[in-house]
Amino acid sequence: MTCRPFVLYAALAFLLPALAQGQQPAPEEAAVVRSPPVRPVAPPAAQEVPSGSASTSPNQRRTMAAVRMADTEGMTLDGRLDEEVWMRAVPATNFIQVDPDNGQPATEQTEVRIVYNADMLYMGVTLFDSEPDKLIHYQMGRDGFLPSDDKLQWAIDTFNDGRTAYWWEMNPMGSMADALRGANNRSNREWDGIWDARATRSEIGWTLEIEVPFRTMNFNADTDAWGINFQRTIARKNEVSIWMGWPRNQGLNRMSNAGLLTGIREVTQGRSLDVKPYVVGTSESFPGRGDSGQTNDATVGVDLFYNLTPQLRANLTVNTDFAQAEVDARQVNLTRFSLLFPEKRDFFLDGALFFDFASGGGGGSASDDLIPFFSRRIGLGERGAPQRINFGGKLTGQAGAYDIGFLQVQTGEEDGVIGENFAVMRIKRRMLRESYVGALYTLRDTRDGRVDSRHTSGVDFRLATSTFLGSENLGASGYFLHTTNPLDTGRNRAFGAELSYPNDPLNAQVKYMEIQDNYDAAVGFTRRTGFRNINPLVTFAPRPRQHPWIRRFNFGGEMALFLDPRDNRLLTREIDVTAFQVDLHTQDSMQFHVVPTYERLEESFRIAPGVTLPAGQEYSFTRYRVQGSTTSRRPLALSPEVEWGSFYSGDRARFAITTNLRAAPGQMFTFTSEWNRVSLAEGQFLIRLYRVIAETQFNPRISLVNNVQYESQSAVIGWQSRFRWIVKPGSDLYFVYIHNWLDDPLANRTYTLDRRLSSKLLYTHRF
Hints:
With 767 residues, this protein is mainly beta.
């Protein structure tokens, strides 16, 4: 009787994809018209720099102007561009190829027009195609990755500082994705802005009509100069073209090389207040964890967003719930160190780029070995179990030349878990064109005072330019961190530096890092402590000219050298040599790696149940890896990987393969399997991992994703089924079902550990 809601949802989760077979997107989502849409007629593009010859200098900035709509003019969002205002807009056009023929005009014409009124920014795009029947478009859903589709991507730097941007992309089916872009190619794809769009396909190609409320973006109302850029991918030709910044060292993500958008004046962000209430209903049981009953609950909460200034945003959350968050992808861990799982909760993802510390040329915080603020430390236990968040507040944005991030969160006490207070403060002073200096402070303490406070403070800097030797990238960064905790005994610091030259075809960098023995990652993440690390990397990726099927080779290597900081004894040395990599024009690729490794075990290492490597031993072993991938633009794509060689006191063989099947637009299946067979002097074992993801996108606003995972280390089979309906931009309905089973080989049976059915309705009201 108590299982009825679970059984009902399970049946629906598997029946809905079957019913969706053969469904076409609704006409308003991605219409196919048999007569071309009205093509605006406009005078030649009036730009500061002629927009389109191959001889155009990449450093000369192109300009386009937005056209103000009359108060009486309306806009019907249908993707057809048949409103009269589009005829008055002068297009950005004459894109230049990034690949395959770098610097040459694009083979198909693209025209982008921008108009606006007091509340909305509109973009109309005509993407001409001489063979429109060969357009590739598998994705339909919101926030899907589009590695294989025809697509248009664009980025708007509303502060025109060349550092940050709002980023969007769409394909001919109307699939919509967005992200926040930070310095050094950092991005946050989990950001969901409120905007709307429609796509239309016709005999001339495809068109997009896009509507972005000015309230969705932060900007400086005192200036009408915004950075902007556009990039188009023609999948069947494997061609990428861009409006501005065609050298391969630049591209769409480097906003310092973007064009200029002018003419946006006298627009409003309203009262700059968004209120997002939500209600959550849950039904859960834990039969495999000693609780045979079922618990039903309903909660309400609210998120408030308020722009204190056009550049500075405050966020308050009360009774926070993350029922709609996706589950973590399971990983096989044959190392002595913790795995890093990404943040997936909306409250922490919004504005996350303002908390990055020591962002180097590779992006992110200092490295995965050292993240001084890692938001998964808040409201999640060591095994990922959620902890109640009573309330949280956040302030992110810009104030003059400063980037600011402030976070305060209080977690609740339940099931013996102590409630805690967390605070994070981050400030960066922007310098020159692409550089900064900054500081960070974090605090973690228990609400009842049973454990003293734990503090982290640090400073960092980055000096960078994208005009070294003309258009080359060059950067240097450094950082210093100090922690204190109740057991403070000294040696509690971390520091490092990096010099990077990330360019095409030559990419080189060298990093130095030291984390002392007692460094305390109270609100952060570290894989290990008590080491100094030297990490050089060099890759060379030449492109043979006019080769009929090879696009690029890649050769290089990276070394990770870990030393004991007390006496410089070698702890770990891993050299990953890319002996050979070839990328084809078809987007197929193959590579071969040799990885010689040295490990000194200071402590015993339990690598598997019943298999422990003793302390004090030294091991030298070499692994070989061959991996390849077929292009994802085909309905069936494969990514196999084979690894073999010596491993500690014995041998290891690993085989992994990911299969992607696209049965029809909006119908996608991904199957991942991995086998690790390890034979050591201390014992033998086999570790397996399987993952199946079946995604049905009924249209760009309704989707269902089933995710089933199993890995033999935990022997847990997990299933998450996630239904999302975007009722309107900013308002969503979710149904999420999670079921975990334990595969018990000793009892020769599989039984339920826990199951949970959640529904969540959230609504955004803008004042």
